[in-house]
Amino acid sequence: MCTFAWLFDTCMIRKLVIILLLAFSFVGANGQPKQQVELFCGADLYYADVNFIRLYNVLLNLTPGVKYHMGHDWQLAAQAEIPVVNEGYANRYNMIRLSLAAVSKQFHFPDAKQHFKLSAGLFGSERYGADLRWMYPVNSWLMLNARLGVVRDWQLGFDFDDNTECDFGSKWYSLALLGGNIWLDPWHTELRATGGRYLGKDYGCECEAIRHFNHCSVSLFFQLHELTSSQYRKKGHSETGGFRLIVMLPPYKKSREKVVFRPASNFNMTYYAQSGDGTMKKYFTDPEENGRTNAIDVDWGTGKFEENQPVAVEE
Amino acid sequence: MKKKLLICQIMWLFLAIPLYAQMHVGMNGLIHVPTADMDTVGLARLGINYVPMEMVPDGMTCDGEKFNTFTHYMSVTPFRWIEIGYGCTLWKFHYNKNPKRETGFYAKDRYFSVKIQPIVEDRWWPSLVVGGNDVYGSSDGGESLSNYYRNFFVAASKHFDCHGHILGAHVAYRKWKRDYNRKWNGVVGGITYQPSFYQPLRAMAEWDGNAVNIGADCRIYKYFLIQCGLQGCKHFTGGLTLCFELL
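Structure tokens for the assembled complex are given below, as produced in the milestone run.
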């Protein structure tokens, strides 16, 4: 009975995603198809101060990726992780991994100021499923946004010592977030507040103040979150703070060529004063997702920056 | 042609913008004393510094003994009136906390610093800042067990132009949280001198509440700031900072 129930749920969700994709593909699309392939490579740096054996545990991965802009706001993206340095992280991180393979479609309803992005596939942070985002720029200084996701775990990797990892979990996780952004134009400063339910079934909220410079953003954030049941610490609430640093990498202006080779668009780093230990977990649906660029191409806030203008491909 | 190149190189060396630092924590200041000077908006620093044991809080020991160490840090001035920094002091420990194993820099103490400037210096008024180091700490109990560097201060700075030479007077009142740092409590301050022929160079002398320190710092090649000093006029301290404009 339980098996059938699970099957029913899975099929229903799959059907729902497919129907949504098909239905939305005929509405909200604007402009002529402008196709472009972007091949890029960046680096992921993880570090943790958790022991007295070394100053930091360090994990450095190269992250080559590809984005195929198919036109009509469709995008296909994939990214791999190639380990370069692993000092202190688990051996499984020595594997070459597929870190993301997802399709996404944006829907813009400019008259109603409604913007959506629907993504499906294998997401970053080892989750797969479907994700829907919404942005509503109320006016020049206020934007509301929300995010809804249903995902499962996945891992896919191999190394040259015949070790492999191929696991697709069966347990569903949901993400539901609601937030608001305030743009203070004279100072290129943004205030954000987001809250909701995260992947660990924990509730939390986050406030962030971001100062946007020419090609760099610096932010301070504060998080108040529920402790998840998986933690060894007693249940209750905890808070943490930290900073984010997002550096956009050249070339800052998007190319009009149909095939583009470039470095990753950004390097970003987040520092937590106190480890959340698995709280407020999210995933990313775009290989170059960062806190400076709007998740949907909306002409609001940093969306007005030259580096975030949509690609205009030569026909 | 070679002459032009040489002149260009010398010009590049002298293309220096005034910028100064209390470099062991990565914030604007003297050597061990904060000042009310602020960086320009959008300036970020990334650097390392050598710190003699005399400038290390007494609570930071290895086998009961203090040690010379290094700090690394980053800081940014997002607005004219605020500077925020994050720094780490390397800490000697036994490998894996095993007393039988060798000692080395296997741990660090981390801290946030902040400075807020409500009053800007003008012809008559000195600039005024309030700020602190190690201002935020947390642990399981909500109260940090470390806070080795925690101190709060009010500082004022005033500069005088004497025929192109710039004299600076800096005074601060500082209060440290930990009792073992009480020797640095109270009124501290210093004087600075920038010669008219090369103002990026700044010589300084300061009283940090316990000792007189002397030193100099200088920004060179636009992106670098170096500082050298003698703590208590005896023990070397110094470092190198990479500076870049984000605006």
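The helical segments of chain A are 2-25. The first strand of chain A starts at residue 36 and ends at 48. Further analysis is deferred to the final report.
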